[in-house]
Amino acid sequence: MPPVQSSHTPKPLRHVIRISQLAYMACAFLLFAVSFPIFGWPVAFGWLVILPIFAVYVVARLRTTVSNDGLEVRSLFSQRTLSWDEVKGFRFPKRNWARAELTDGTEVTLPAVSFHRLPEIAIASGGRITDPFASAAAAFDAEQAEQAEQAEQAAQTDQPATDSDNQPEEEQK
Predict the structure, then answer these.
(1) Which residue among 10, 61, 150, 163 is the one 20 to 30 A from 47 at the CA level?
(2) Per-residue confidence at 158, pLDDT binned at 50, 70, 90?
(3) Range with the lowest mean pLDDT among 46-50, 90-94, 121-125, 160-164?
(4) Can you tell me the mean pLDDT for 2-26?
(5) Of the candidates 141, 133, 81, which has an alpha carbon nearest to the alpha carbon of residue 110?
(6) In sequence order, what are the beta bridge partners of 81?
(7) Please, which residues have CB within 8 angstroms of residue 45's CB and are 6 or more apart in sequence?
(8) Which residues of 109-126 are buried (b: 16+ CB within 10 A; e: fewer)?
(9) By the 8 A CB rule, do 26 and 55 touch?
């Protein structure tokens, strides 16, 4: 039996990435759209009610869970758990969900994961996946600090040596 969680014990990070909840609104619109043919001729078009039900199932089912242990991928009809030892890297095809490249040469699609989710994945993975946004921000901050230091040094060398240079000629005598 595992030890009981206490207030000072950190909880393991688990981050669930799902399709946006706004997709349920699209499902409701689909139900509205198919209701016209269904009410017009129920015998012929009654089967159309399956489409919005299936759309709700897809939105509710598809997800990727990132944890310190690995990835849990839920597709329409299956679920797969990948440990971090199996994952070689990620690939982000254009206009599609990310794919996890595995050490055995295969790929697994990660539902609802796109490139802008990398900071969340980096945190939840415990540092196993690097965050390119954080690296870019750190490089930008270092460049800004270096430019500020150079500007400060340039300002110090341009300062006059004595205050007498700024005084009128009468006061200098």
Answers:
(1) 61
(2) confident
(3) 160-164
(4) 79
(5) 81
(6) 72
(7) 34, 37, 38
(8) ebbbbeeebbebbbebbe
(9) yes
